Fold each of these.
Amino acid sequence: MMKNQLSKAQLLRYIDEVSFCVVDMTLYCDTHPDDEEAIAFCQENIRLRKEALDEYARLYGPLTVDYADRSSSGSWDWVNQPWPWEPTSRRGGRC
Amino acid sequence: MENCRMNPHYPNQQASMFAGVDRLPLAMVYCPMQKFNTTLELGKALECGTIFPELVKPFLGKRGAGR
């Protein structure tokens, strides 16, 4: 997958960026519901966001419960991993 | 890196956006309809608070001053 060279922090930053793009495009599409070019751009970024969230969940654990089924460990990682707001070390591990 | 305080110039807007304004009825409020054009690179958009370059409107004023 194209995002697999990114560090944990870089992937999280990318998720922030593409999520913001989706939010802003949603606002635009709300007022321009027939703008095909804008809708296509929005949909493409929704797809990229899902892909990044899926990648993040697979590598580091789910950011939302929608991706909590991506774990291959067999245990409920959702509750064991650090929460997104918990401090982590520079390398992305737990403090 | 180019930052959000640099206000980009949009000649296509500047020239035509006020055409016909003087024929509009008075005392009404108008808002031009945005058109989908180019979009900012995702990282820059997050920093600027908008994906649309034409909506980058950095606040340049100071407390207690007009500009």
Amino acid sequence: MTPEEWTAVRLSLLVATTATLASLPFGIAIAWLLARRRFWGKSLLDTLVHLPLILPPVVTGYLLLISFGKRGPIGAFLDEQFGIVFSFRWTGAALACAVMGFPLLVRAIRLSIEAVDTRLESAAGTLGAHPFLVFATITLPLCLPGVIAGAILCFAKSMGEFGATITFVSNIPGETQTLPSLIYTLTQIPGGDAGAMRLTLVSIAISMVALLGSELLARRIGVRQMAA
Amino acid sequence: MSLEVDVDHARESFHLVARFSAAPGLTALFGRSGSGKTTLIDIVGGLIRPDRGRIAIDGAVVVDTERGVFVPKHRRRIGYVFQDSRLFPHLSVRSNLLYGRWFAGDGGTAANLASVVELLGIGHLLERRPDSLSGGEKQRVAIGRALLAHPRALLMDEPLASLDEARRAEILPYIERLRDEAGLPILYVSHSVAEVARLATTVVILTDGQVTAVGPVADILSQAEESEGGSVLEATVARHDEAFQLSVLATEAGELQVPRLSAPVGAAVRAYIRSRDVMLSLRPPEEISALNVLAGKVAAITPSANGAQADVRLDCNGAALTARLTAKSVQRLALAPGRPVYAVIKSVSFERS
């Protein structure tokens, strides 16, 4: 592997991990809202969360560009107020990946929260637990396998995200050139086939490790919960 | 401590109106399924917000719709034992027991856990997981969990309904100890006459969402439901007859022989005798299979609504016993208040206590 390829792999891992961890709290909160609350605009929120799943990734990337770009309304505000810049930075790639992976994350967590028996939650309430603590001590531990599954899906999606990332933050080596972007670049230049194949193998390996890891983790949690 | 309830709650075609107060001891909410028993204790426990009403524990108001008071369930300190124990599957028995204590936030932990564990006989289960427990063990842990949250009152929604006869017999003594030792009002939902007869201090009868009777168990059960009338006799275990596997109970009305009880000699028990299981004879019956014959006098005769049957209330040496006879039998025996009779009771009709 060339240094350029290593850089792309490291960057992809950083982007995917950041995207997954940063979107996890929001994902859990929104999944809980969708699973357990009734409120005005719920189906709108549901649709909004799922939108990146059905929109062409390039469209999502373009929307990110015009809203979070340097001159976009949100991008300009974040830059001025907090000095946070997304455009043409690896953080922008992470944002694009988080948005693209969010529907998968929310969906998995929502399903597992819905599977938690609300009767256990009301029992915890009668024992004196504040609703927030009921969530932390009962709901969350019981839906942990779903949270892990959602996080792995989000991570995997982030590792492979191409369309939205390249549209939003371009393909800058060392900054925004993730693994898929580099594979794309290599297929466009003469003699790049070998590099593209190496990266493809790396990509497959990372995906398999992530999947196996999540299986093991989910099984260990399952065993702990079902243990006699 | 006492629990005062006065609520009004409408839901589709159903209207619940209930007003009663529960003193320390066990108050049974008794009625058919659909009579509103569970709705009522869900309201007391804070799981349902009533349309109108007031609930106070020991003078502290937890619901008062007129003044806009509604204390959420996690701040009521009312323990709730559900029909389906609802133990937390991801926690050990010990963690389940201690769950509420986290939030109750007062000391004396170890002593409390030890005494509750001892009271319920669950010491050997502490490190186990809920799904490895039997139904009876689960319910005992659920009762312990509710107690350890330091409740001011305890709600029990048919805690024995999902258990078989043997498991019920296993838990009943623990609930009796709880009633006698915990010193807090227990609101106990049941549709089983046997359970109510055995456990209740006070009975509240709910019929289609309305409280139709409130009072001490012996007074109320005899007038409970037409088909289920009966009498409660307070008794003590006089001795056990090991050869025939029988126990002899001493009551005001005389001695009763019942299938061998597990209670020790001297223990106080209650016998419940269904009115339909009592026959009357004018002379002392001889050479019959029934073991129990009590002498008494007719106190009152209440004909049923359609006149085909009559409930004959007897005074057996001060204890009340009711027999349900056909109107024809009443006439044939020329029963009238003051007439001496012998009540024949089938021993199987005793509720094991």
